[in-house]
Design a protein that fits this description.
Layout: H1 2-22, E1 24-30, H2 32-35, H3 48-58, E2 63-69, H4 75-85, E3 92-96, H5 99-104, H6 109-125, E4 129-133, H7 148-163, E5 167-169, H8 171-177, H9 194-208, E6 217-222, E7 227-230, E8 236-241, E9 253-256, E10 259-261, E11 265-267, E12 271-276, E13 285-293, E14 301-311, H10 329-335, H11 362-370
Parallel strand pairs: 1-2, 1-3, 3-4, 4-5, 7-14
Antiparallel strand pairs: 6-8, 8-12, 9-10, 9-13, 11-12, 13-14
């Protein structure tokens, strides 16, 4: 009887020890978005980390997610803080930082990425696995409201994760491209609301439990979107990544000015390099669309415009509001909602004030009408 009791005690202790070993400690490291600023005030624990912990436990992991977000922090400050944050027994660093650097407008995207890499290396030197994360898109921000700078930075984050063979969580892709009306997930121009933090937690949870819901994603693209005065023989170049099932290379196509083009593809299903040189000099405005999908079942599909640029020497007719080289009904549709508005009013838009008199009125409509149906290139 005593032997049985001892055996039972030993097995219980062994099971307990196995449970302790099985627990994964995640360190959520970042700025105010990690900290949970502007989350539901009725929640005791804010931000994505407590939600992520609950999701991981629901999916069968014994997980502890510690919130180490600090509002207002830049990546330079984070580099100084990381050593104070990491503890013995930490397993995984979830690294999402860079929003404040971008907002400061005085540090290059490349420098921000270097800082992130140094933070990751410090964690790896202490035995942690690192998961990079793209930063969230800005919503109606006074700076980079179109997310061109933020998107380019996230391209560098994707390259960094691929280069150093780290996992990637991609909330930028999920919020900006995969969520219709993503502004409904925000409390202000930068911070999610409760629904946004729910989605952010799910993005991390999917990566950590090997659920693939993200299509192939682009890295750096040149020419950069909305580039002016681009030389007419400039090639289009981009990188394409997939951190899940891999890229379906056979389904990857470049579409230039609405025409599928023959495109050399080099690389692998994890990273493709795509370069397209125009057979004749570009003219006017060039739009580039990318079609691809991954090898997941069902596949996650990418099909959208990835860049557009204007060739040097291009001129636009007055009234060509959408800058497609033709004054037509599309321009009139853009113009109409602003008719009657004056500068300073909510409905006013400078692109509709065709004679620059600070008012959108019949004089502007006359300018548009005089060129209606004409093309400039």
């Amino acid at each position: 009887m005593r032997v049985r009791a001892l055996s039972f005690t030993f097995l219980a202790l062994l099971a307990l020890a196995s449970g302790v070993r099985a627990q994964t400690t995640y360190v959520a490291f970042g700025d105010s978005i990690t900290q949970g600023v502007l989350d539901d005030p009725n929640r005791a624990e804010k931000g994505y980390p407590p939600r992520l912990e609950a999701l991981l436990q629901q999916r069968g992991q014994t997980a502890d997610v510690r919130n180490e977000g600090l509002a207002g922090e830049t990546t330079g400050e984070a580099l100084s803080r990381i050593d104070k944050v990491l503890e013995a027994g930490d397993d995984v660093l979830l690294l999402m930082e860079g929003t404040n650097d971008i907002g400061a407008q005085d540090i290059s995207n490349e420098t921000i990425a270097v800082n992130l890499d140094k933070i990751a290396e410090k964690a790896e030197a202490r035995g942690l696995t690192v998961v990079h994360a793209t930063v969230l898109p800005r919503f109606g921000s006074n700076y980079d409201g179109t997310n061109i700078v933020t998107g380019a930075f996230n391209g560098l984050v994707r390259e960094l994760a691929w280069q150093d063979e780290r996992k990637l969580a991609d909330p930028f892709e999920v919020f900006y491209h995969l969520t219709p009306n993503y502004g409904q997930l925000y409390s202000d121009k930068l911070h999610p609301n409760a629904a946004g933090y729910d989605l952010l937690a799910r993005v991390f949870a999917d990566v950590l439990t090997n659920i693939d819901k993200v299509p192939p994603v682009t890295g750096l693209i040149s020419p950069v979107a909305d580039s002016p005065r681009v030389p007419p023989t400039t090639p289009v170049h981009l990188n394409l990544y997939d951190f899940g099932a891999g890229i379906d290379v056979t389904a990857t196509r470049l579409v230039v000015n609405e025409q599928v083009v023959d495109t050399p593809l080099t690389g692998s299903s994890r990273k493709l390099e795509i370069t397209y040189s125009p057979p004749a000099p570009w003219k006017g405005v060039v739009t580039v669309q990318l079609r691809s999908r991954d090898l997941a079942n069902p596949p996650n599909v990418l099909d959208r415009e990835i860049t557009f640029f204007t060739i040097e020497g291009t001129t636009f007719l007055p009234g060509d509001i959408d800058r497609d080289g033709r004054v037509d009904g599309a321009d009139l549709l853009i113009f109409a909602p602003h008719f009657g508005a004056r500068r300073g009013e909510v409905r006013f838009a400078g692109v509709a004030d065709l004679n620059d008199d600070n008012e959108v009125n019949g004089a502007d409509l006359a300018v548009l009408a005089s060129n209606f149906g004409k093309t400039s290139f």
